[in-house]
Please model this.
Amino acid sequence: MARYAQVHGSVALITLTNPPVNALSAAVRHGITETVTRALRDPEVKSVVICGENGVFCGGADIREFAKPMGGPPLVPMIAAIEEGDKPVVAAIEGVALGGGLELALGCHYRIAHTKALVGLPEVTLGLLPAAGGTQRLPRLIGIAPALDLITTGRHVAAQQALKLGIVDQVTDQSTVDVAIQFAKQVVGQPLLPRKLSTQPTPCPPDVDILLEEAMTQVKRRARGAIAPVACVMAVRAAATLPYRAGMQKEQELMATLFRSSQAHALQYCFFAQRAVGRWKLSSGAHSGNSKPRPVSKAAVIGLGTMGRGITVALVKAGIAVVAVETSDKQLQMGKQIVSEMLKREAQKRNETPRLDLIRFTTSMLELKDSDLVIEAVFEDMPLKKQVFKELSSVCKADAFLCTNTSGLDVDELAAVTKTPELVVGMHFFAPAHVMKLLEVVCGSRSSPEAVATAMYLGKRLGKVSVAVGNCPGFVGNRMLRPYLEEANFLLEEGATPELVDGALEEFGFAMGVFRMSDLSGLDVGWRIRKESGLTGPDVDPSDPPRRRQGQRYSPLPDLVCEQGRLGQKNGRGWYLYDKPGGRVATPDPKIHQLLEEYRLKHGIRPRRVDRQEVVERCLFALINEGFRILDDGIAAGPEDIDMIYVFGYGWPRHRGGPMFYAGMVGLPKVLERLEHYWQAHPDVPHLEPSALLRRLVDSGSPPIDTWRDFLQRPHSQL
Ligand SMILES: C[C@H](O)[C@H](C)C(=O)SCCNC(=O)CCNC(=O)[C@H](O)C(C)(C)COP(=O)([O-])OP(=O)([O-])OC[C@H]1O[C@@H](n2cnc3c(N)ncnc32)[C@H](O)[C@@H]1OP(=O)([O-])[O-]
Model:
């Protein structure tokens, strides 16, 4: 839909109307085509302004239409008609001009932007490329290198920077439409040809071939198997080497391949899943639509260890006052120094002043009497956490929210020691807490909708992707991680090496394989948890043989590695050898290979060849299987919740959609068949037994993932 008006005598004002972001749906494309034709034919009209309703220019093509057969006028000729017209067309950009929205503006002869506007070509984040002339017009306007950067990263550019780059002609803090109308009147009669980008040559530096080669190498390294960024470089190369028409041909060919790709489906699924998880629902019927968050202006953080420091910085970056508490003055001073340095670094990156004035450091819990919300981030030990919650319950005001950053302990058990269990929720951040985008909001059985709403909303204020989950050991993320880790250890027993397992997972798209990731987070962390749960150390049941625990297969390999003082990156040796303690360069360690050989010999294991396919299937299908159990237990409301947790918290490659989406992509019957195959081979590994939900879905013909939430309809949600 596009509205037409003639203003100031001779200016046609065309307004895109498709809330909330004026996406270029078929109806909008029809509207633009009709109104532009009318303006170009009307002799009274001397120039045209295109703008968007509600202070938003255009969020691009309508992504919801991608899953349907495309109807309505195609974008390329629609934009060409604007450019080829004999009347100046000015784009008045407010809010955003993204993807097809910016391509529409690039087809106009002039672009005026509001100071707060953002422009960009984010198609690559959807597994696509700018396919309405963006890869051919933008390089002609701003040059190859800046166009490559914007198109291969998909990043949004603020108006002032867009002016510097030459994307827009003017920036205003007044009414952009009014300024554009005045501008459109002024440019009547000016030569238009130089403003028609498709007619202009692409400015190329002498070393353009080298620049394109380097860009391709860099993009391939960063892409980790994603195909869209590579196609983006190929399309921009066409702008540097081919005439416009041939370049457009190349752009369309590349887009046709991407559009049908599973990666594009995965990335578009992630786009909508990221928005869906914000719409949470509890079994009580309370949900994000009918539960109001309470404002949080005064927060507190208990414990200034790694997590506490990151959480404090995240709160201050969002402009929230924080009381930071530590038990000893020594710990407090150390925490204060590190937090201050982190805030200074963060402020420097954003060219701002660090808000150190927002933090009060103290050793006294009494200073929390007027905090709206407290986040406990002390050592992962239940008795210690209970003591803290008891104290909080006595010093905080009656309606203060009491939140725990535990990564898997029982939230209900903590709530039970307070006077206000309904105000207790889990807020599980991921390290580094001021960087990682994921927040698991853990709903205890007595958490009130207001407490969940407040924690979810606070997560959004901190720039997090907040996902509401039920309360169980390990919640969602860590609960699924356990079978993934165990399968990796079993594969080592059977003949694999850390570098083979990691190689397969990194080829799949993970930034880091499981053993490099374990070395990064510190092998002693898992070792302590295994000791506390009686899997290793003094509390092991003496009747348990070395490779069995609680009647299940168990691999003591990680314990052996720790017993040898190998704690990972922090001390320079773990599953890999590092150049120095804390070093990041990992090299395969012959001593680990020797340890594996001796271990297999000792336990009578004949090593066999393990291929990458088996690594991917056993590690990921075991993780996915636990995901189905979590859905069936009602700990997660839908597959989107699990997928966003893994994409934003565990480095699952976004172009693979997330574990549950990937299972749907591989095909549920295949996942079931492979799990049954491995379970038969390893009957002492219960996490390989296919989950009941997976079987039910396959029996029901493997319905598409967007129907699983309804398929799950269950009275016993833990949310
Ligand atoms: C040919 C051409 O080359 C190609 C092929 C293309 O052009 S491909 C398309 C390229 N365009 C994009 O990649 C931009 C995608 N959008 C965004 O980045 C953001 O939305 C935003 C614009 C920065 C606003 O952020 P927000 O935080 O203020 O609100 P929101 O919650 O995100 O969005 C508000 C609501 O609008 C919906 N929405 C947003 N953009 C949409 C779009 N392009 N199509 C369809 N729906 C869209 C979104 O799902 C949500 O719906 P619901 O959840 O309420 O039901």
The chain has four domains: 2-259, 298-473, 496-501+511-602, 612-711.
